[in-house]
Amino acid sequence: MDWTIRDEIALHIAMKNSKLEACKVLLGWLLKSLNLQLLNPKDDKGNTVLHIAVSNSQTEANESSEAEP
Predict the structure, then answer these.
(1) Taking the C-alpha atoms of 16, 21, 29 and 7 in order, what is their torsion angle to the nearest 10 degrees?
(2) In sequence order, what DSSP letters do the residues of 1-69 get, joined into one string?
(3) pTM for this structure?
(4) Distances from the Cα of 30 to the Cαs of 24, 55, 57, 64, in angstroms?
(5) Count of CB atoms within 10 A of residue 34's CB?
(6) Which of 67, 2, 12, 1 is nearest to 40 (CA)?
(7) Most Cβ neighbours (<10 Å): which of 31, 43, 44, 46?
(8) Tens digits of residue pLDDT in 25-50
(9) Do 43 and 58 form a contact (C-beta atoms < 8 A)?
C-alpha cells in the first residue's frame, strides 16, 4: 500500500473527496486481501477513514466500514 506525504492511503483520499463508489471498491479489495489493518491508519491530522466519513456526513460509507469484521 502506498502512502502520500500526508500519511494518507487511497481510502483516505477517496473519503475526503466524497468518492463513495471508490471507497466501496477499496473496502472490497481490503476484505479480499485480508488487509483489514489498513482501515485504521491515521493521516497527518490523526484522522482515520471512519473519522473522515463521519465528519463529512458520509453515513453510507460509515455503515459499510462498520459492517466489516
Answers:
(1) -10
(2) ----TTS--HHHHHHHTT-HHHHHHHHHHHHHHT-GGGGS---TTS--HHHHHHHTT-HHHHHHHHH--
(3) 0.52
(4) 10, 22, 22, 12
(5) 7
(6) 12
(7) 43
(8) 988 887 777 666 666 778 888 888 77
(9) no
